[in-house]
């Protein structure tokens, strides 16, 4: 019998397991191979930028990022391109550019050895019997069921656990597509592209060593492939070099458009990270939310395990407020006319010496 089972060893699940792993008997499941060299069969689709909020959380967690995780160039600028309004601006930002797969593996390597980590384990379903949660999963071809007291969904945007508990929570479903191209150009900025023909969210380019990563987030069932091709055409016209494709992947991504879409759990089942809907609805920055929610749940488990969700709700009030504020800010980024008004002022933008 385990005290806690955590589904998903991404930044949220790995952080929680690290924080509670010495005090409680913890089972951590992930379908990915995140320990040792692994087989890298499934990689998290991500831009791999650590934004200032996530840097702050890493500092609070007492962590510094090892140099093997960094990729060049490090970025200090966002090039904002508004296609419909034909405006371009550069803004100063401070990102840490990383290899996301190596980052996830590093976070898992920090988990105490007392945690039972099962990589290559696919969570299937749960059942509650006399207050005990029975967790069923498949690990290396064999079916298992383990008894646990608390179950944590840290299984990301397409959380199997959340979809079992609250199906249809998100009316609008987005998917992200990312493609890596070989690049000889030096483009030391993160581009954020606003284009109504592609999406009501945004698209991006990020330089990664000798590649450039192109990504877009579009509504599911709105012909993602065609829209992504249109984005690439428009980028090529603007001088981006996108000839030799190296790899392509995709993932679901959540965009909580009101705080009611964030589902933190019920009774002895809690959600952290993107599985709960903790992600910025304006920038899709998710690492800081993964860390903050994991810290909040770890505190709640230790403070008042009998009233876990009530305590967790209290401990995530600030995070909830953050989602509300971001949604209030959203029209200034995503309404074409308000965005034009903001960008036209040039406020906080900078000139780049060519
Ligand atoms: C295209 C894209 C670009 C992004 N770029 C950035 C960025 O640059 N910076 C940033 O801060 N955020 C970014 N985000 C958001 C960020 O990636 C997520 O918010 C963050 O990864 C959430 O962490 P998590 O631990 O909650 O979930 P995840 O990182 O998604 O981890 C979930 C884990 O659960 C596992 N899992 C899922 N289902 C099961 C199952 N049934 N059984 C077992 N294991 C399971 C998965 O294998 C995975 O390891 C981006 C997201 C996308 C889609």
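^ Assign residues to that structure.
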């Amino acid at each position: 019998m385990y005290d806690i089972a955590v589904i998903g060893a991404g930044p949220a699940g790995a952080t929680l397991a690290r924080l509670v792993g010495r005090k409680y008997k913890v089972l951590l499941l992930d379908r990915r191979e995140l320990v040792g060299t692994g087989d890298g069969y499934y990689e998290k689709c991500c831009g791999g930028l650590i934004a200032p909020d996530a840097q702050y959380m890493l500092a609070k967690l007492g962590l510094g990022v090892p140099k093997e995780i960094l990729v060049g160039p490090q970025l200090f600028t966002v090039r904002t391109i508004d296609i419909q309004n034909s405006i371009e601006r550069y803004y100063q930002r401070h990102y840490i550019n990383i290899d996301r797969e190596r980052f996830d593996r590093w976070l898992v390597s920090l988990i105490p050895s007392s945690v039972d980590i099962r990589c290559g384990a696919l969570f299937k379903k749960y059942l509650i019997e006399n207050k005990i949660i029975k967790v069923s999963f498949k690990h290396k071809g064999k079916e298992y069921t383990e008894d646990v007291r608390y179950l944590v969904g840290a299984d990301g945007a397409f959380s199997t656990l959340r979809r079992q508990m609250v199906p249809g929570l998100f009316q609008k479903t987005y998917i992200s597509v990312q493609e890596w191209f070989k690049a000889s150009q030096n483009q030391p900025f993160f581009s954020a592209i606003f284009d109504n023909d592609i999406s009501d969210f945004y698209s991006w380019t990020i330089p990664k060593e000798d590649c450039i990563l192109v990504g877009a987030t579009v509504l599911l069932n709105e012909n993602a492939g065609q829209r992504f091709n249109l984005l690439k055409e428009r980028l090529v016209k603007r001088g981006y070099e996108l000839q030799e494709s190296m790899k392509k992947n995709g993932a679901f991504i959540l965009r909580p458009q009101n705080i009611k879409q964030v589902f933190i759990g019920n009774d002895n089942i809690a959600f952290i990270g993107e599985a709960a809907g903790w992600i910025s609805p304006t920038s899709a920055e998710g690492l800081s939310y993964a860390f903050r929610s994991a810290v909040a749940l770890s505190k709640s488990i230790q403070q008042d395990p009998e009233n876990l969700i009530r305590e967790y709700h209290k401990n995530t009030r600030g995070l909830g407020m953050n989602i509300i504020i971001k949604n209030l800010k959203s029209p200034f980024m995503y309404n074409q006319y308000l965005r034009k008004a903001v960008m036209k002022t040039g406020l906080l933008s900078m000139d780049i010496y060519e």
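The two ends are 63 Å apart (CA to CA).
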